[in-house]
Amino acid sequence: MPNENIMTESIAKSILEDVGIPKRENIDWLHNIYRFGLLDPYEEAQNGREYLFFVKPDLYIVDGSVATNGSCTLQSDISNNPFFLELARKWPQIIPQLQYQADSSHCPFSLLLTNAVASNLDLPGLQSTTIQNPVNNFGTSYDYRGTSEASDDNFTFSLEFKDTKYLDVYMFFRAYEEYETLKAQGRINLYKSNLYRNYTTGKILHDQFGIFKFIVGEDMETILHYSYYCGVMWTSLPRDSFNDANFDDGIKYAIDGKAAFVEDMNPLIIKDFNNLVATYASNSSFVEAPLWVPEILGDGTPNGHVDQKPVKIPYVDTSTDHGIATYKLKFKKAANRDN
Prior knowledge:
Blueprint: H1 9-18, E1 49-54, E2 62-63, E3 73-74, H2 82-90, H3 95-98, H4 111-116, E4 130-132, E5 143-145, E6 153-163, H5 168-184, H6 194-201, E7 209-216, E8 223-234, E9 251-264, H7 267-281, E10 286-288, E11 292-293, E12 305-306, E13 313-321, E14 324-334
Antiparallel strand pairs: 1-7, 2-3, 4-5, 6-9, 7-8, 8-9, 10-14, 11-12, 13-14
């Protein structure tokens, strides 16, 4: 006779329902009432990860692009400037991170900052204003709800970045500061260059940029929340980090920034992100970089692992998870990369 002690799947699910954990298909937050509370282990968010992608500004530092060997030509306004001569000699790889048009690969993001950032980027809370009606004969007035638009504007933040002993990150911010000083002194002439004249005639702020923020779930792909910081500029230089030579915890800087405005959960953010990477990501030298690498040992045992090798470009893919449309953060790798 069958073993009566064997617990079937239906019995197990029944027991779970008895302790307040319904079957996945029976959970409906919108149309049911769970009188004794609801435990939903299927959709509860666990620890995730934050990704920040810094859109490159387009400072006018060099004419043309920086070659792979580091050779470049400073534009005439700064061709005799000692600081930028030193930058071009010792840190030429920093220039394409500050000047989009100096990057022959046309990567839209300053990947140096994406890899160096060591803290989370704050989001401003929203607080609406109220509109008060005139007081009536009984001394009573009524407030109507206004909007929270003002909460999006002029948001200041601070980010911490780690650096190497070669000070690549510091020189990124040092060059940005030096450029802003020269620009304020009227020593940067955009109009003389056909490539940069459009910034003047179109009234485009070439030294400001955007930051995309994605928070992904425990699968490291599904986007839980996304936001965009528009009109960002750096407003501080951490020179005081070198007050002493104690770098026991490595070299780190706290950099202040300011965004003209912030928005979140607008699908246009996803569209703009994919539009930015479209040309770069469509390059045939890049292929899909799966998060999980399946592997079979010699004895036929599955032994997959997470792919922790470097990737090249991110993009957002639309997919469906248990009937719900979701966004997933995906990456592409170099086609000639091992594995």
